Amino acid sequence: MLSKSQARTFFLGGTVVTFAILLGLSWNSLSNAVPKQTHEENLTEQVVRGKHLWESNNCMGCHTIFGEGAYYAPELTKVIDRRGEPFVKAVLTSKAPWAPNGRKMVAYGFSDNDADDLIAFFKWIGEVDLNGFPPEPDLKQ
Amino acid sequence: MKYKSQQVAYWFFALSMLLLALQIVYGFIMGFAHMGFDGLHEIFPFNTSRAVHTNLLVVWILSGFMGAAYYIIPEEAENELVNVKLAYIQLITLALVGVVAIVGYHFNYWEGRKFLEIPRPLDYLVVINVLTFLGLILATLYKGKKRTTTSLVLTMGLVFAALLYLPGMIWFDNQTMDSFFRWWVVHLWVEGVWELIMGGILAFLLIKITGVDREVIEKWLYVIVGLTFISGILGTGHHYYYIGVDKTWLIIGGIFSAMEPLAFLGMALFAVAMYRKGEKSIRIKLP
Ligand code: HEM
Known about the structure:
The structure holds two protein chains of two kinds.
Chain A: H1 4-37, H2 45-56, E1 64-65, E2 68-69, H3 79-83, H4 85-93, H5 112-127
Antiparallel strand pairs in A: 1-2
Helix pairs in contact in A: 2-5, 4-5
Chain B: H1 8-35, H2 46-77, H3 84-105, H4 120-143, H5 149-163, H6 175-210, H7 214-235, H8 248-280
The complex binds protoporphyrin IX containing FE (HEM).
């Protein structure tokens, strides 16, 4: 029968081994995959300002990006491809709550500059290689 | 109650229940918004309700864990808490930081990073608070007469939970990196170290309630937390499928996260099995 010290070895050994693998794989992903898949060279100051606005307004509290966030408002990873820049800019600068389908978005009324920063962020996000996310709509159906 | 200082646990539990009630209120606000009744949009926009709802969840669980530790550690270590006054101060400051964060969420003061919305300056206060808590627990354990497996697993869970908060505080310009380390906090908490804490609490209860030999219960505790870590640590990969990292994670995350339910199933079977074993040698005497 399993003894207590064997059980402890199982716990400690399993933890150390799997954590070491996590660290190794993470190191590999962050040093090799991330710079390539995210096109780090395109990460301009404007994109970073956009990310800051994305965070300081908690856009993720309603929307998703990379599929992460909340499920109240649309996925925004490829929003520039789907809607085009002028549309997105109109939403961001609108002084009245944007509510095309009845659900209200907070009326941020961003300045032109801020809206441009967010759009630069969305463009950068839209170019990240996400292993096929979001899937293309199946037009045959 | 064997030790007077265990009483602080009561107030942590009370705080925990209060926050749970408030969480559900905000849950309903969101539920109604989802159904199209968004009349309170000006005061409680969806992102506010959501941040409050999920953050309250985290704080009430942590408050519950802390209270449980203040109850269990003295009894296991056979020692009064080293400083009861400090434990109360820690409780009050925890509640205060929570209130400030939640009020802030109503005034666009936050960091929109799913589940980690607490703004950076408040993060530092959380760190100080948790260090105070850990200091009290570790000192009580250190000065105590006994160091049981149950108390060590519980303490290890609490220390790791605190350490794992830190990757979430690093600033990244790259959204992918941000997301990557955010899951170190969220996933490794929820599907990792929290099970150490819950396992420790469960073992303590089973020892008290069933009267089954401590050695037997603690042996299986090791097995359960072992299964949790072996599946849960690499199971983090299931958050990395589509965030801009390589496809290795699709395989690793898929396999290991499929194993994660085994640990939880194991925990349930463990509780039932020990209870049955205890029934045979009935010694149940509730306090
Ligand atoms: C009657 C009670 C509750 C209601 C009406 C409620 C409602 C909601 C709603 C509407 C969301 C929506 C999120 C979205 O669309 O983005 C949500 C998210 C969430 N709730 Fe609740 N909730 C309740 C209780 C709870 C409880 C008791 C817990 C945990 C102990 C909980 C944990 C969560 C979590 C973790 C999320 C975020 C899920 C995610 O995005 O991954 N909720 N809740």
